[in-house]
TrEMBL record:
Domain Cytochrome oxidase subunit II copper A binding: 532-631
Subunit structure: Homodimer.
Location of the protein in the cell: Periplasm
Gene3D superfamilies reported in the protein's UniProt record: Cupredoxins - blue copper proteins, YVTN repeat-like/Quinoprotein amine dehydrogenase
EC category: oxidoreductase
Name of this protein: Nitrous-oxide reductase
Organism of origin: Billgrantia aerodenitrificans
Family: Belongs to the NosZ family. In the C-terminal section; belongs to the cytochrome c oxidase subunit 2 family.
Pfam entry (one): nos_propeller
Length: 631
């Protein structure tokens, strides 16, 4: 095949979504063409030939990457730059390997009637002074309006909240300074406040809210009603503000209605102002939710809105990202506009302190970057990198130069473009949400992989590409197929995380199970006992490779059985599993962990249980029998 043909084929692949999408957004502010952007032509990615980024077998990665699992409901950990998947953390899903959604310990976190699916979008690791402190990872569930906190010592969620009064949590972000005391969760869909069925037919009464959660207690602090649908959000580096992109300012119910105005907003909340009002009792509550609600809509304020600043931003803005290392600017990516809007945080403070006359005065630049800008990330040399969904490119541009251009100087702020494969959404450079930004690697989370991998049926892998951004020109160095569907990712330095290798016996994750054993007079670390309490039977056993402490127990058909297993192995990586055949039960018991499950023994007969994690040469023999007498 000639080069020429290849080129045509490549173009048609690349354009397949772009053309239809451009038609679809006709009328959106695509006018203005490519401006200064056209001065730097895109370079097709070269296949990686060198191996300076290769992580040899046995070598460890430089970064931990936290990936959302999208509608798989998980969070994943990858090593970067190898892009090797290290762990899946089940959160809003049922996991057959770990027993998440099956064990009593996980059900306590999920809640008794929790939906066992979800749609995770934006993982965020906690900060101390805008640096990753490795304590928690927070993640939103867009599907069932929840926020979870994952403990990064044991890599399990320990708190999950359902957010009241709103529908769909999309944007999620954390306070950075002085540390992560607050979590901000942006409600997306507008619904009646109170959504109890009384008001269905009057969309002019539908609203959404920003929710603030105490990161330590995981209790709600407040909610603020806003105009329009909230999308993505990010905080500043002073601890005072949180900004959210806001589309559908027309508050339409259908796509044509949503496409109304030329501009939507970036909504910026003054957190201390809201909290002063809440402390003074100036709030309402909705329905039976006790969460304090303040009104941050424009209509609720005479003169200057004390709670929120609505910055007119070209139609349907999407990503909101504060620039490290000082957090001077915030870039809002245009999505349906070929621009990025650069907001200077100090001007936002000026506005709330009574200065500036026009909300647009906080905008210091609005560079044209290309078609379909979704998210922006950064290096440590003053450059921004924006994902272009329609162009299937990453564009590198210089922030200070874009400000000079906005002020009328003849300056080309575009530094480089690179093709990605294909239709990129999120983008994140190493440490780019923190003071430690290092400008080394960038992940490009492409929504389509098309022809990049062996075909595996109608469902294709996503393609998370890795780009070397350390030089003048970006260099594509890795294609990473991923399962449906990472939305966002972040990278922290390997030394910024210190996970446990073995549980400690006082871990709060299974403290309630320990308390139950104590009430039964059972010492979990030693006893193998069956306690009968009416038709409730509690079976306590230890596990030490290659045997369970109890290899036979007897119950009656219809008994409610609780099995509690304590792994007394102390060596890291000697995990056991407890799997009960034909009962849908399997769960993890890692060294020094206690895990439990409760079920009704409804089938008379002999039922084997076995260890499901290969732990020993006699692993296959690590088993026992549950004998169920007919009722
Ligand atoms: S959003 S592709 Cu759910 Cu993060 Cu922008
Ligand atoms: Cu214990 Cu396999």
């Amino acid at each position: 095949m000639s080069d020429n043909n290849d080129h045509i084929k490549d173009l048609s692949r690349r354009n397949f979504l772009r053309n239809s999408a451009v038609t679809g957004v006709a009328g959106a502010s695509l006018a203005g063409g490519f401006g200064a952007g056209a001065l730097v032509r895109s370079r097709p990615a070269e296949a990686a030939t060198n191996n300076e980024h290769h992580v040899e077998p046995g070598e460890l990665d430089e970064y931990y990457g936290f990936w959302s699992g999208g509608h798989s409901g998980e969070v994943r950990i990858l090593g970067v730059p190898s892009m090797r998947e290290l762990l899946r953390i089940p959160v809003f899903n049922v996991d057959s390997a770990t027993g998440w959604g099956i064990t009593n310990e996980s059900k306590r976190v999920l809640g008794p009637n929790a939906p066992l699916n979800g749609d995770t979008h934006h993982p965020k690791v906690s900060y101390t002074d805008a640096r990753y402190d490795g304590r928690y990872c927070f993640i939103n569930d867009k599907l069932n309006t929840r926020v979870a906190r994952i403990r990064l010592d044991i890599m399990r969620a320990d708190k999950i909240l359902t957010i009241p009064n709103v529908q769909s949590i999309h944007g999620l972000t954390l306070q950075r300074v002085p540390s992560t005391e607050r979590v901000f969760a942006a409600g997306e869909m507008i619904v009646p406040l109170n959504n109890n069925g009384e008001y269905l037919d009057d969309p002019s009464e539908y609203w959404t809210m920003m929710t603030c959660i105490d990161a330590e207690t995981m209790e709600f602090k407040w909610q603020a009603i806003v105009d329009g649908n909230l999308d993505n959000c990010d905080t500043d580096y002073s601890g005072r503000f949180v900004a959210a992109s806001c589309y559908n300012s027309a508050r339409g119910m259908t796509l044509p209605e949503m496409m109304g105005p030329e501009r939507d907003w970036t909504v910026i909340f003054d957190v201390p102002a809201i909290e002063r009002a809440v402390a003074a009792g100036e709030y309402t509550t909705i329905g039976d939710s006790p969460v304090p609600v303040v009104d941050a809509r424009e209509q609720a304020h005479q003169g200057r809105n004390a709670f929120a600043l609505y910055v007119p931003t070209p139609r349907s803005p999407h990503g909101v990202n504060t620039a490290p290392p000082e957090g001077k600017y915030c870039v809002v990516s245009g999505k349906l506009s070929p621009t990025c809007t650069v907001i200077e945080w100090s001007r936002v403070a000026e506005w709330f302190d009574g200065g500036l006359s026009d909300p647009r005065d906080v905008v210091v630049a609005e560079p044209e970057v290309g078609l379909g800008p979704l998210h922006t990330t950064y290096d440590n040399r003053g450059n921004a990198y924006t994902s272009l969904f329609l162009d299937s490119q990453v564009v590198k541009w210089n922030i200070e130069d874009s400000i000079r251009a906005y002020n009328g100087e003849e300056v080309n702020y575009i530094r480089d473009r690179i093709d990605v494969h294909y239709n990129i959404g999120h983008i994140k450079a190493s440490l780019a949400c923190s003071r430690d930004v290092d400008g080394k690697y960038l992940t490009a989370l492409c929504k389509f992989s098309k022809d990049r991998f062996l075909p595996v049926g109608p469902m294709h892998a996503e393609n998370d590409q890795l780009i070397d951004i350390s030089g003048e020109q970006m260099k594509l160095i890795h294609d990473g197929p991923t399962y449906a569907e990472p939305h966002d990712a972040l990278m922290i330095r390997a030394d910024q995380l210190n996970p446990s290798q073995v549980y400690t016996r006082d871990d709060p994750y299974f403290a309630e199970t320990v308390a139950m054993a104590q009430a039964d007079g059972v010492t979990l670390e030693r006893d193998n006992k069956v306690i009968r309490d009416g038709n409730k039977v509690r079976v306590y056993m230890t596990s030490v490779a290659p045997s369970f402490g109890t290899t036979e127990f007897r119950v009656k058909q219809g008994d409610e059985v609780t099995i509690v297993v304590t792994n007394m192995d102390t060596i890291e990586d000697v995990s056991h599993g407890f799997a009960l055949v034909n009962h849908g039960i399997n769960f993890e018991i890692h060294p020094q962990q206690t895990s439990s499950v409760t079920f009704v023994a409804d089938k008379p007969g002999v039922h084997w249980y076995y260890c499901s994690w290969f732990c020993h040469a006699l692993h296959m023999e690590m088993s026992g029998r549950m004998l169920v007498e007919p009722a």
